[in-house]
Amino acid sequence: MDHRYAFLTEWYDPTAALLRRYQLFYYPKDGSVEMFDVKNQRIFLRRTKYDHLHPEDLFVGNRVNVFSRQLNLIDYGDQYTANKLGSKKERTLAFIKPDVVTKIGDVLESIYASNLIVTKAKMTKLTWSQAADFYVEHQSKPFFNNLVQFVSSGPVVAMELMGDEAMSIWRRLLGPADSAVARKEAPQSVRAQFGTDGIKNVGHGSDSLAAAARELEFFFPSTIGIGPSNTAIYTDCTCCIIKPHAVSEGLTGKILNSISDAGFEISALQMFNVDRANAEEFYEVYKGVVIEYPSMVTELCSGPCMVLEIHGSNTPQSFREFCGPADPEIARHLRPTTLRALYGKDKVKNAVHCTDLPEDGVLEVQYFFKILDG
Ligand code: CDP
Ligand code: MG
């Protein structure tokens, strides 16, 4: 028998309003998949070649899309799979300090280049006491006050990074805490490249698995609504969504860089896993108007997306022009420097959604940052 990976998965069936459980099998040899219905004990999907599932996406806690069904990988299905795919996978907390939030694109580029993926992200602004709680282990150190003061002085971006040895890889990417030392000892590190001194030193990385668990819980608590809040301001704004295909292709850093280089202010940023019902609701206005509506819905709920609030007067019009024509082929002919020309594939996988009508900007931003962030 071909060797295969096995997972236990859950899929929310919107028609029956039920969570259904399937075993998912993936055969690396030919990239085929097979699904088995656990409750009814029968084959649900016969072994079929499926090009859109990548082995690197197969780990517990991730969501994958199989023939338009978004499956949550809730456990390994056998010891072989757990040993092969699960052993070195770690989650760690990274956060970007206020000095380089405008360089978040560059930092993400280094993260993706190291084979780590970003599974959660949120821009937030910590109060003095939240920052003091976060750094409680350094309470008695002489630099404590300056550190807490700095970290609460502006927006930070907290992220969950995932991958083989994520914790040590991210700390190595950061380099020594003192940026001057980093420039001497680790010139390729992000602190060497973007840091200023010991306090303004780009970012933070958990230093043990226990710290990672505590720090992830601090920014992304399992009880919704109690973590640090997002930074959306809901005035003079437009909504930009970096679509799931672009996120999974590792284009997030490049797209954020393009947006910042063009002079747009990113005033809120967060990753969301949109489910089908919410995707349908968000795109409601396109229903029956745009023939791509069903495919747009499927794309938006096919994996995590990154949502931005772009702020500034006249932003809705100017940002929309910057995104370019909806069809990337047309964009590449007419407006080759636009986001869709640069990063889009086709009319559905066109890299970004942006608000169409200026008066909808606030509503679309609210949909994510008020309603879905709950
Ligand atoms: O951030 P990292 O884990 O590399 O270093 P740390 O020893 O846990 O210290 C936390 C933060 O305190 C550092 O990132 C520095 O910003 C700051 N610090 C400092 O300003 N002076 C020191 N001598 C040590 C740390
Ligand atoms: Mg530390």
TrEMBL record:
CDD domains found in the cross-reference section: NDPk7A, NDPk7B
DM10 domain location: 1-89
Cellular component annotations (GO), alphabetically ordered: axonemal microtubule; centrosome; lamellipodium; nucleus; ruffle; spindle
Predominant cellular place of this UniProt entry's protein: other
Keyword annotations: ATP-binding, Cell cycle, Cell projection, Cilium, Cytoplasm, Cytoskeleton, Flagellum, Hydrolase, Kinase, Metal-binding, Nucleotide-binding, Nucleus, Transferase
Gene Ontology MF terms: 3'-5' exonuclease activity; ATP binding; metal ion binding; nucleoside diphosphate kinase activity
UniProt-annotated location(s): Cell projection, Lamellipodium; Cell projection, Ruffle; Cytoplasm, Cytoskeleton, Flagellum axoneme; Cytoplasm, Cytoskeleton, Microtubule organizing center, Centrosome
Role summary: Possesses an intrinsic kinase activity. Displays 3'-5' exonuclease activity with a preference for single-stranded DNA. Does not seem to have nucleoside diphosphate kinase activity. Functional component of the gamma-tubulin ring complex, implicated in the regulation of the microtubule-nucleating activity of the gamma-tubulin ring complex in centrosomes, in a kinase activity-dependent manner. Part of the dynein-decorated doublet microtubules (DMTs) in cilia axoneme, which is required for motile cilia beating.
Stated name of the protein: Nucleoside diphosphate kinase homolog 7
Organism field: Sparus aurata (Gilthead sea bream)
